[in-house]
Amino acid sequence: MTTEKQVSITQRLRNSFEYRTGLRLGQQHDHPKHSLGQQLPDQPEELQASDLFKDWWYYSIELLPGLITRGIYAPDLPMLPRMMLRRCLLNETSCLDVGTMEGLIPVLMRRGGARQVLAVDGLDHRLAQLEAVKHYYDVDFDYKTVGPLYDLAAKLGGRGFDLINYSGILYHVFSPLMALGGIRPLLKRGGYMIVSTNVVVEEGYFMEFNNAGRMQSEAGTFWYISVELLDYLLRYLRLAPMDCLFLPHTSVRSDRKYVFNKPSGYLSVLCRAVDEVLPTRDDEWMAWSAQQPWEYHWNIDWGLAARQPLSGIESRGSFDNQFFRRDVNCLDLWKAVQNTQPLTSVEESDSHVLRLSDKL
Length: 360
Known about the structure:
By secondary structure, this protein is α/β, with parallel strands linked by helices. The protein has 13 helices and 17 strands. It has helices at residues 4-21, 44-49, 51-54, 80-85, 104-111, 127-137, 152-155, 176-183, 227-236, 285-291, 295-298, 302-307, 333-339; strands at 29-30, 60-64, 67-68, 88-89, 94-98, 116-121, 142-145, 161-167, 187-200, 207-209, 223-226, 239-248, 264-273, 314-315, 324-325, 330-331, 353-354. The strands form four sheets. Strands 1, 5, 6, 7, 8, 9, 10, 11, 12 and 13 form a ten-stranded mixed β-sheet that branches. The protein has a three-stranded mixed β-sheet with strand order 3-2-17. A hairpin with a 4-residue loop joins strand 15 (324-325) and strand 16 (330-331). The longest helix has 18 residues, at 4-21. The radius of gyration is 20 Å and the shape is globular.
């Protein structure tokens, strides 16, 4: 039974959120273009002394030459979704970035030639930073606060995207399959989605729950998905893995811990939207399950997915490599992670640092 103390704590959290954001929990909100650019410092001394520059930043972003905000990651830590984004030719495309924070990925999408970019996040927590980045980088993209990330297809009006970056989401939600299924219908037919998440590198189909913070001390981290299960869920949702990059957690220097008693890491997968599930030859259940009129169709708007236009997005180079599953025409993630040299450190242009001169 819920105690009065639990109710009080929950209400305080809710009131705090609504006071800071002006939203009710679960509410979505469009943000008009702001005129903050006129108020932003254009002199280094002014910027360095400003509350904006001194505030907490997720990414390290150069706002004026030589003045870089202090992000939470080491400057040589690989940012896998950023690297995977370069596999895509974005000219005249429509792109979506989920969980955008200060907008590093949208900046690169626009500089890579994307015609339209929409950035979304669950909370109104980085608005000033987003507007500052747009101003100093002279780029424009739309932003929307969407609340919980389970039903983005409905919240975003069913519009279609050639490329969706869906990175750093699946371990933050109660139900990874529901969250991924909720955005899948927004991907144009043949379009690309970058899915990146924490994984367990151990054979089998399972998820590890972060009980007692044993995997990460970060309060909003719930699940590490096994590599084989992630591969299966993607193919179940008609997403064909085409390429991947892997970062072992042993290479991450952080006070959040990351490492626990099983081998783990961060996996970024570039997927292509296909029209049918992709079962292996020995799996009759996947296709049969996808035909049943229950959860698979109740929770995912496959009608919308089928009505999406065909995407004209292209990739750089061929996806055909030694870890391709010929029976389903997609990458074998388990073999790829096991046999590919993992990344450990990179140059700044592949990291969580964004500089004024950076392009995709």
